[in-house]
Design brief:
heterodimer; A: alpha/beta; 13 helices; 9 strands; globular; B: about 190 residues; 7-stranded mixed sheet; 3-stranded mixed sheet; 6 helices; 12 strands; about 25% helix
């Protein structure tokens, strides 16, 4: 073997992995059986969890990394990539997830944060990370820490898409505002959003995030998924929206097809017919302050 | 010259950008377009099947009716990377068969879907290819490999004793991602084939 020339865990490999997910749907699953349903429906990857966000929300208490045994069983059940969540700042949970062969780690606000000051230093890992963001500054800080993929935080486990919409519009809108700015204006803009100037300049030039940007948090129907795609998402995460639906296999396949045909209303109409009930959901305005997940992390 | 990139899922934009770059370098006129529905393939001089998840791309290619169009246009040159290589194959390993993943079955090869392991094992390496005079920095991401090749298949490159680049007629199959680097030498080799 040409071992001496072999390189693992480079930025190109991490960001490249995320690029292969583009135009796809990543689904939350809690068992090998659910993972197989997701794969058959056309998911590009699954997110292995001990409970979907809607149940995590209901259970309360401290939400932690899933049991590695459950994650391993899911890894064995499917051929598509398997992701899993670690608590914000909990680099040991991340080390464990890397050790069992998880393909991407989600440093997630859905779990209870483990550190009030620091996110994980993601450059120290071989596997890539995805992180949530509510605005461009947060996205830039996560990328600067080594995140290879960004997703909106939305408000997980609610089935209410409005927060994901808000976060996606915030990020794409601010990127548009950066267009045509001079170097010193970009430096000032970077300072205002507490983001590294180099990354902000690169983003202004590209007119998009320098990494793949997915939508997440509250997506419950094919129309929700298509909405996020039309707003500029590279793909979507669906959490509780699938396995809290009346018919998960049908809803999963329909959301995959909706992401593929997101700009074709006639196809979307066909896809949206007769799916059975979507997840019941919670209106975000009825949540108490301490029940809001998106304010975790910074 | 019209090159169509299958735009179902995966790194479509990267393929479009690298073919545009290669055409520019040759000062050749050409269009690089997205194939996201039935009816576009017949107007293309070449088809690109991108990297992504082969189970997803394969299923949607069938559902959208694009798969049969590709099968039907027998001599169209095809440039396939990673997931694209899996889809070109006639036979898959046990993993591929278990998922019931539809293959295009155009190339006399058997593939191992994740021959090099999981993302942790993904790698970059200097690869020798038979048609290039200098090594190529190849990016392997949860990459497949060709485990068996028929007599009509020309092996263009191997890594760790596994076939990672091969050609059959005007079809070029690569286990790695030339669209993720700036080096367009493989694109030029393909454009010469067309």
């Amino acid at each position: 073997m040409q071992l001496e020339k072999l390189r693992h865990g480079t930025e190109l490999l991490k960001r490249g992995f995320a690029k292969m997910q583009k135009g796809g749907v990543i689904m939350d699953v809690t068992s090998p059986e659910e993972a197989v349903i997701a794969e058959k429906a056309g998911a590009v990857a699954v997110m292995a969890l001990h409970a979907v966000p809607a149940d995590i929300r209901r259970a309360g208490g401290v939400a932690r990394m899933a049991d590695p045994k459950v994650i391993e069983d899911i890894i064995d059940a499917v051929t598509i990539p398997v992701m899993a969540k670690a608590r914000i700042g909990h680099f040991v949970e991340a080390q464990i997830l890397e050790a069992i062969g998880v393909d991407m780690i989600d440093e997630s606000e859905v779990l209870t944060p483990a550190d009030e000051a620091y996110h994980i230093d993601k450059t120290k890992f071989t596997v890539p990370f995805v992180c949530g963001a509510r605005d461009l500054g947060e996205a830039m800080r996560r990328i600067n820490e080594g995140a290879a993929m960004i997703r909106t935080k939305g408000e997980a486990g609610t089935g209410d898409v409005k927060e994901a919409v808000r976060h996606m519009r915030q990020i794409t809108g601010v990127i548009r505002e950066l267009k045509g700015k001079s170097r010193e204006e970009l430096a000032l803009a970077a300072r205002k959003i507490e983001a590294p100037a180099e990354l902000v300049a690169e983003t202004a030039e590209l007119q998009r995030l320098p990494v793949v940007n997915f939508a997440a948090g509250g997506i419950a129907t094919p129309a929700d998924a298509a909405l996020m795609m039309q707003l500029g998402a590279d793909g979507v995460f669906v959490g509780s929206g699938i396995f809290k639906a009346e018919n998960p296999a049908i809803m999963a396949a329909a959301i995959v097809e909706a992401v593929n045909n997101y700009d074709n209303p006639h196809v979307l109409a066909g896809i949206s017919k007769g799916l059975g009930g979507a997840m019941r959901g919670i209106d975000i305005r009825t949540l108490a302050q301490q029940e809001v997940l998106q304010t975790r992390g910074w | 010259m019209r090159i169509g990139v299958i735009a179902i899922q995966g790194d479509v934009e990267e393929h479009i950008a690298s073919f545009r770059k290669a055409l520019g370098e040759r000062r050749e006129r050409g269009q690089v377009i997205r194939i996201d529905r039935k009816g576009v393939i017949p107007s293309c001089d070449a088809v690109v099947i991108p990297g992504g998840e082969s189970t997803t791309i394969g299923r949607l290619l069938e559902r959208e009716g694009i798969a049969d169009e590709i099968r039907g246009s027998r001599d169209v040159p095809i440039f396939a990377t990673c997931a694209g290589l899996v889809l070109l194959a006639k036979h898959g390993d046990e993993q591929v068969m278990r998922t019931g993943q539809p293959l295009l079955g155009l190339m006399d090869i058997t593939v191992n879907r994740n021959a090099f392991g999981r993302q942790r094992e993904s790698f970059e390496a200097e690869l020798s290819l038979s048609f290039l005079d200098r090594p190529y920095n190849a990016v392997f991401i949860r990459a497949p490999a060709i485990t068996e090749a028929g007599s009509r298949v020309e092996v263009l490159g191997t890594y760790d004793n596994l076939i990672v680049a091969a050609r059959q007629g005007k079809m070029l199959a690569l286990a790695f991602h030339p669209e993720l680097t700036d080096d367009t030498r493989i694109h030029h080799y393909f454009l010469d084939i067309i």
